[in-house]
């Protein structure tokens, strides 16, 4: 049985994390439901060679950020969880406060209230007290916060190796094994 995963890409650096996650989910045969914020679209095209339309083709279904009537805005739409990669501090703050003024925030809120997996690849440094407090709040509510921290035990040779490791770690939490190098 294939997994059903919501993927959010927000307006933070490292949009490649969301792209690689979509590629890995597609390889795994997962059904994906994609939301990209406006800033996420802008940064994607600024930081990578990808066009938004090409990234959207990786998903099973794509939603507009303001479509609060989308199926993923309801707890009755069953999913295996949600990955937000990257997750901006603005998005983190919205999730932490329950502020659901767009579909991405609403979908994350639904995932939490239904006690499903919410994985946040938060991107910012250094962290302020407010960021840390928001991370504590979402973690207490059931989310898993995975800052894309570099690891060296996997002996990465390229940035792509590091991206693959972070994405593998995140998808592992959703029960999807991408074959990333584990600690021995």
Characterize this entry briefly.
The chain has 184 residues and is of the alpha/beta class. 40% of the residues lie in helices and 16% in strands.
Q: What is the spatial order of strands in the main beta sheet?
A: 3-2-1-4-5-6
Q: Helix/strand-derived class? A: alpha/beta
State the helical fraction: 25-40%
Low-confidence stretches: none
Number of domains: 1
List how many beta strands DSSP finds. Answer: 6
CATH fold label: Rossmann fold
Q: Which CATH architecture would you pick?
A: 3-Layer(aba) Sandwich
Choose one word for the global shape. globular
Report Rg.
15 Å
Q: Can you walk me through this structure?
A:
The chain has helices spanning 16-27, 38-47, 52-56, 89-97, 103-113, 129-140, 159-172; strands at 4-9, 31-36, 61-63, 81-87, 117-122, 144-145. It has seven helices and six strands, in the order βαβααββααβαβα. The longest helix has 14 residues, at 159-172. α1 (16-27) crosses α7 (159-172) and α4 (89-97) packs across α6 (129-140). The model has no long low-confidence stretch (mean pLDDT 96). It has a single domain, classed as Flavin prenyltransferase-like (Rossmann fold, 3-Layer(aba) Sandwich). It has 184 residues and is α/β, with parallel strands linked by helices. Strands 3-2-1-4-5-6 form a six-stranded parallel β-sheet, with helices on both faces.
